[in-house]
Automatic annotation (TrEMBL):
Organism: Hyphodiscus hymeniophilus
Pfam families: Acyl-CoA_dh_2 (PF08028), Acyl-CoA_dh_N (PF02771)
Key word Flavoprotein present: yes
PANTHER family to which the protein is assigned, alphabetical: ACYL-COA DEHYDROGENASE, ISOVALERYL-COA DEHYDROGENASE, MITOCHONDRIAL-RELATED
Keyword line: Flavoprotein, Monooxygenase, Oxidoreductase
Protein name, UniProt field: FMNH2-dependent monooxygenase
Keyword presence, Transferase: no
Gene3D superfamilies: Acyl-CoA dehydrogenase/oxidase, N-terminal domain, Butyryl-CoA Dehydrogenase, subunit A, domain 2, Butyryl-CoA Dehydrogenase, subunit A, domain 3
Domain Acyl-CoA dehydrogenase C-terminal: 291-431
Length: 457
């Protein structure tokens, strides 16, 4: 279970529920055990502050709250990246800050904000810690799942479950793996199979499962409690970047799900409800999450420039053999030129990402209730997202690698932590080849063809 945070207005109580052996590494039995777990109590003063202040009430307030969280995370992000502790403490910070609720309906305690604001919040958090920006982004996407593919009753029930309990949501939805097998067992379904990757599951309260109903080609999404015997994490995420996302593999072993929790399915006909799972509205989750990617790439790159700037001002030495020697690196032409160029491209990428976020938000605002959206409307929004994906990927990789040119050789020290920004972008930007986004945009420009919905479009 994730830590619970309770306040009576005067004090804050943090309860940490560890699984057995939850702080151990290695095993004599040969079974993989969890990484050491970070302790939510380390953020106690921040929990108390955020809870006493309450949730923000405006777009500016939510972005500012995300900025505050980002600054807290940035303080020891490099050290935490090295320690590779399971980020229960950091998720607890997202919880007490209210960021998990930013998109939820105000009527049940959510922030009532649009995806346009949600993307900016993700970006801010990623500036301080790319892993937590990614976890927040995926959580917000999974929290939207029932709104897109569920019926009205499911949408309301899932939103209440998440918002009222301040749950963090992970997902075992990896399209490139064989889908989980789903079988009918009378009044419930059984999910069974294996995923090479999940996102944030180890530190989640709820997990989104997705698979194919046996004998059909129809997919089913469902929310389940994470802590149960049938969800077995391998604890094998030890990759070069995004090290604190707990994105390793997971076995789904005969997990039971009531038919009433099969999102968008008719429990009597045992078939998708055509009034709910309408295409193309039901496929909006795909461009929505692609823009989540762009925003945490962008946040990471902006974070790298901020980090490098501070380092240049405090630790970089001027080059003494350039014929036009300066006393300070901040006077050197090539350093000023590089920073200016990086900043200009990031500013342009940020503007594009904001425009794409507006387009996605407009589609939800216009069609969220009646679930009607034309293929053209969806496709044109998806092409704004594709444009942002191309530009943010290219720019973020270039900037996070290029900042070493303006910081110097000592900036490559492991404890400095400048390398984590490039490692984070490089790791996730391999999620799906950006070359296909370029091709997709080419078809849009040359042939006026909007993309056919796929798991990556």
């Amino acid at each position: 279970m994730a830590p619970s945070i309770v306040s009576d207005g005067n004090s804050v109580t943090i309860t940490i529920n560890h699984s057995p052996n939850g702080t151990a590494n290695g095993s004599l039995s040969g079974k993989a055990l969890p990484n050491p777990v970070s302790d939510p109590a380390v953020y106690g003063v921040h929990h108390k502050k955020f809870i006493s202040e309450g949730q923000p009430t405006s777009e500016e307030g939510w972005v500012q709250r995300a900025r505050e969280v980002s600054e807290i995370l940035a303080i020891d992000a490099a050290a935490r990246d090295i320690e590779n502790k399971s980020p229960r403490a950091e998720v607890s910070l997202l919880k007490s800050a209210g960021l998990l609720k930013v998109l939820g309906p105000k009527s049940i305690g959510g922030g009532g904000q649009s995806w346009e604001v949600g993307y900016k919040v993700i970006r801010e958090v990623a500036k301080g810690d790319g892993s937590l920006g990614m976890l927040l982004g995926y959580h917000l996407l999974w929290s939207t799942t029932a709104n897109v593919v569920g019926n009205d009753e499911q949408m309301e029930r899932v939103q209440k479950l998440i918002i009222e309990n301040n749950y963090f949501v992970g997902g075992a939805v990896n399209p490139r793996d064989n889908d989980l097998k789903i079988t009918d067992a009378g009044d419930h379904l059984v999910f069974d199979g294996f995923k090479n990757f999940n996102t944030g599951g180890v530190v989640s309260d709820l997990t989104v499962l997705e698979g194919v109903f046996a004998g059909t080609e129809n997919h089913i999404f469902a929310f389940v409690l994470t802590e149960q015997p049938g969800i077995q994490f391998a604890h094998n995420w030890n990759n070069v970047g995004l090290r604190l996302t707990e994105s390793g593999s997971v076995k789904i072993d005969k997990v039971k799900v009531p038919w009433s929790d099969a999102l968008g399915w008719d429990t009597e006909t045992r078939a998708p409800d055509p009034k709910v799972l309408s295409i193309p509205f039901g496929t909006l989750l795909l461009p929505t999450i692609q823009l989540v990617f762009s925003n945490f790439y962008l946040g990471i790159a902006l974070g790298s420039l901020n980090f490098a700037s501070r380092y240049t001002n405090t630790s970089t030495r001027a080059w003494p053999y350039g014929s036009d020697n300066k006393s300070s690196p901040t006077e050197e032409f090539y350093i000023l030129e590089r920073y200016g160029n990086f900043f200009a491209h990031l500013r342009a990428a940020e503007t594009l990402a904001d425009r794409a976020g507006l387009e996605i938000a407009k589609v939800y605002e216009k069609h969220g209730e009646k679930r009607g959206v034309s293929e053209r409307e969806r496709g044109e929004a998806a092409e704004w997202v594709a444009s942002a994906k191309v530009v943010t990927t290219d720019t973020s990789l270039r900037v996070t690698a290029g900042v070493f040119e303006v910081t110097g050789s000592r900036a490559t020290g492991r404890k400095v932590g400048l390398d984590r920004f490039w490692r984070d972008v490089r790791t996730h930007s391999l999620h799906d080849p950006v070359a296909y986004k370029n091709r997709e945009l080419g078809e849009y420009v040359l042939l006026d063809r909007v993309p056919e919905p796929t798991w990556y479009t």
